[in-house]
Records
---
Amino acid sequence: MKRNKFLYALLSSALSFTFAFSLSACFGGGEDTTVETPTDTSQSGDKNQTSVEDGEGWLVKDAQTEYKIVLPQNPHDNEYNAASELGYFFKAATGANFEVVNENAGVKPSGGKYLFVGNTDAGKALGVDVSEKTLTSQGFKIVTEGDDIYLLGGGTFGTVFSAYSLLEKYIDFDVVAADEIVYKESKDLKFLKINATEVPDFEYRVSGNIQTYNDPLIAQRFRYILAYGNGFMTVNGRLYHNAFSYIPPAEYNDPKKEDYHPDWYSGNGTAISNLQVCYTAHGNKTEYEALLNKCLDVLYETVLRNPNIDNVQFSMEDNTYWCSCETCAAEKAKYGTDSAVVIKFCNDLHAKLAEKLAENGIDRKVNLVFFGYLKTTEPPVVKNSDGGYSPIDDSVRCDDGVYVFLGLVYAKYVYPAGDTQNEYYVDLVKRWKAVSSEIYLWTYGTNYRNYYIPYNTFNSMKETYALYSEYDVRYIFEEGQHYATNQHPTGFTYLKDYLLSKIQWDTTADAKALTDKFFEYYFKDASKAMRKYYDELRVLFEMQEQGLLKTSTGKVASIGGGIFEDVKKAELWPQGMLMDWIGYIDEAYAAIEKYATSDPTTYKKLERRIKTESIAPRYLYLTLYLNDSSAETTEMRKAFMKDMQQLGNTEEGQGFDLSGLWTQWGIA
């Protein structure tokens, strides 16, 4: 395809200018630093220390090993997972079979060559502090003593993640994508003396993109947990916005039923609605106690069904309505926010749960989490003379084990959290920290108005997560495109997955080096062409955000950066640039053509990856610049529709099916 020479010259100039002042470290926020390398290195920090050096002997020699993987007598499922992953990838890399055994009298340190996994007696005998207080549930230590290796997690997930860290050190293991796991192959692995401690910057990390959202093994390999099944308990099938899962209106707000409790539901003092719970039961103390007890019954049974999950929600329904009964209105007038009644209710419910667990001899701490979202976004705090914040009174301070899940739905994620565009949201986190000792944070990483237009968090994510890690954010969930209707999101979402998995674990990760690695392994022979496209896209992002583009009338064209903004505008996506990018896609296809006959499996995989990234520029070009009904345009539209169907993408934006676009184009 013919290049737009003027635009290309402009772009080259913009590249030089932009990289000079803002992209020298690729993601902004200062110079990137590498935290850990897989060979002979020693590092230290507040939480993380890694020392690796050659030891005596071999872990694997001539594709054979004397080592056995040792599990506790009664291993947890995650300890099984750790052992399984070690055995699988060591065999794939070296050809050696690592036998997996349970710890018994015949398995003793220095009595053979062992790789102890998890909560073994041998590991406990080391006397190493691996408490959750030190490591969190997902941090770990790797220790070698004599010939033996110990993988010690702060919790069972920590043990799993320690297995991947050990593989990194021995075989350069890395998960670039679900279907692109890299490691070096060698029949010989020298034994390494290791003393390593790793603690993630965010204890719970959940991905919001389809690649890692629903598959527990893939999520685990990215060092994520699942929202469902690992992060939070489900309450009668619901994870979020689940208040009515405790007290379904059909069950308790039906006057025809004996168990009728209208005061449990929102209203304005007269009319009752089934839109939210009334967290004060309309001021009726008897009904309030009954509401707590009914919710306790459901909560207690939920906790018993989920012995390995620590978090559960009692969270508002997903709408902007709130109860305005006399009692709720008075509480809002007193505290300036609707969140005060939620905090008080959750404190009371959590206290009842703790009491019931203790009465039944169950030694367990469960975290009860509520949403700071829409009507409950603002916390009940006052500003101190020193600029800090305090709860308005002690009754609205979250008890230990009761925490806010703050949804920053209106933040502008294309800008770092520290940017002036997001001052309110950083301050909001600070204010909530005054009442909730730990923060659970829900962020966003896509444009929900249009899924096929790239959303630039590449420049901002590193600085954003580094800042939020300073505020004791315990749980981080960046919602992306986890919807099953779009199986292959475009806009370099797979790169975003890779970077997020590294940066959420360690906010000092070297983002530029990670980006280089991703392109090398994910696109292989097509990496040069795809990198040109990506780098130019990044420059255009900068121009959009800094107001360096002009409309046809000479006005400045720029973006706001929110997740619902309409950015399908010609002035933001110059035609010549889109044509250039489509040309790079053609170059990428040409670069992999040799695999079509020599290695069809590799060709098919690379073709799908390139096709996925072709969607954004083709979509923009077709919707912004081709409005005619010529045979050529129709052919291009049909080719686009065919590719979308092959990729399994059916939704143009949140709540907008692609069928509308096909009808508009006349190709349905």
---
Amino acid sequence: MRSPYRIPLLLTVVSMTLALSGQADQNWFFGWHAGIDFNGAQPLATNGAMNVAMGSATISDASGELLFYSDGIKVWNRSHEVMPNGAGLLGEEYVTQAALIVGQPGHCGIFYLFTSANAPSTDALRYSVIDMSLDNGLGDVVAGMKNVLLANPMGEKLTALRHGNGVAAWVFSRALLGDALYAYLLTEQGLDTIPVISHVGQNTFLGCDAGFLKVSHDGTELFHLGPGCQIAEIFDVDAAVGMLSGAQDLFMQYDLPNVLISMEFSPNGQFLYFTQYIPFDSTSVIQIDRATGIRTILDADFDYQGHGDLRLGPDGRIYVAHQIEGFVDVIEYPDLPGAACGFTPAGFALQVPLVSYQGLPNNVLPYTMLTLDLGNDTTFSCATEPFHLFVPTTINGSFSWQDGSTGPTFLVDTSGTYSVEVISLCGSAIDTLLVLSGDDEVDVDPWSGILPNVFTPNNDGENETFPLLPVPMEKMSITINDRWGAPVFRSDDRSLLWNGKKDNATIPCPDGVYFYTGSVQYSNTCRMYDRPIQGVVQLLR
């Protein structure tokens, strides 16, 4: 039997719309168990399980809650416990950018963790995949997707940049030797392990492995620092193809001192901030105004183990690691020149007795999250089969449809209002869709309910049986009685009709009027009808 409702594939899926989670950078973990929580009106000192001298990486969900963090050797979940498969990563200690976390576009809860090692090492640049649906939602490294080798030998430098399409991501690393910068593309389909290679800037050699790659906050420039070989250069970035060009030698352009430790862009890109190291003497923090070329020393610390990495926080301030101290320095207004930038020594106190070392967490791209779009309110034709709305399986979360059902799909088989709410680590979203019937057949009964009132079973081949049905029937039940109420025919078979004989056997019934009662079931393309039937029919030969 046909379904009573038939709707076409006008709305095939709950479509995906890519948005960006702006809370990915809300938690930092670094140094000796130190941490900063940026979720409040003011940052809050917190603590973690990691003890790391230099580079680390952290990631938070769409509401700013911690997901996990790593030093390139282990991965800790939001409960500050090592993930079940989160130990034994082949990064190494004392690496400037030991780890980088990038969310896979279009896959809520899937993250790529890139790790680097001390060069020259056979464990130079690798990645592992973390699925936050594993371990009861605490996340774990996916079996078979751990410590996958990308390139060797490579330097200790890792950063990421959003693709020009606003969805995919480029992951940049620097070859250990020569002038090659590698760009790996991460898309909804996964990681392309064949890099885009730019030969640009100065050649590096053994001893140049440490340092940083950092992207300007507008995504148009990439900075490369090689402290061991006095390299500080900026390239233009073509985010559509991952290529670099137009190298600027900052040492020559701004007469920079040696040795530089780290660098950060101001939010507006006009100012460059450096930490400088004078061996066995002192460290300092320097601002360069790119518009005027003016160099300002913001702070000098006559402890040669003083200042370390610089990093722009989600609150718009730049934080400066301070070696073996219970604080980090802060640049309050990094878009202002000279002393107006508000450099504040010991501007943020860490939890006692936790201390900062040389590193701060690597940069975090706002990762792609999914919002829902059920489409526009629509009308449908009911000439085809029902269809399903579905939440993409790339969402790790809970679902609630308008009727309270919680599956990832919902069958649409009639007019009505349909909605779904999704709650996930990438955020929450709800959308509603009104589906209306637009088929003229929906409210049109294909049969008027009138049966013929005469039939002539005289073997002439015309009008030989009763009833003569004007539309195909799904079911039929009929009883025919003579004028005295005696039954002459009864059938529950839609194909068995009365031929004018007693019980359709051999004895012809006499001409005259007969009475019938019963019911029929039939449909148009959208609706099933159940109707009683009754009336009289005259038998003539």
